[in-house]
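Researcher: Please predict.
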Amino acid sequence: MTYLGIDIGSLSCDAVLIDDGGNILASAVVPTGSRNQEAIRRAKREVLDRAGIDEAAIRGIVSTGYGRERVDGRQDSVTEITCHARGILSFFPETRVLIDIGGQDSKAIAIGNGRVIDFAMNDKCAAGTGRFLEAMARALEVDIDQLGDLDLDAKGTQNISSMCTVFAESEVVGHVARGTGVAEIANGINRAIASRTFSLAKRIFPTLKSVPVAMSGGVARNSGVVRALSALLERPIDVPAEPDIVGALGAALIARSR
């Protein structure tokens, strides 16, 4: 039998299919768009096709994310905080702090004895999230996937003083117009996100230097943000090969356990 986890977020719908042993059989990440139920159906179909199995082989479905109540046939819906914690522990069992930066919010989650013990969440604006990075990439006229490596050649940094997405975008456009190097601007963007995330993490775990930290969510693919945050933490950050699917994996594991 197999178990399906679906994480429906603002930017993407992620699905993970696992077997009785908790092994990942297939995963999919598709854009959410304006029709989240269509995205759910597409993600589900993609993992079934990739695994080469029929829908009848799914024993349980658990959904998570802001659109979790929209998933038909689910046995339960679970918060993304719980699902991301469960998913990251399958990759890095020693994790004590998980930083999850998604499309429209960011979270710092404290983990102890295999469960969530505290969390802090930034959901008041898009600052430091995937939406923020999309706006910054647009202002720099680069693909969002390029942002992570743009700062590697930076000779310094250009501070981004505003973390409001609208004002920061205008600020970046102004720096470009004045001839500031793209690498230096990208460095400033990554540092700004890292600084905000660091402050969020310290709300739940004041002493972070010796604590195992991991990241999940799409922004964890941005190596520049990971490097900047690692420097502030003064320790390496564990990032799974596919950080986007951590929440969906956690949902699938919860489906299996229930």
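Model: The chain has a mean pLDDT of 89.
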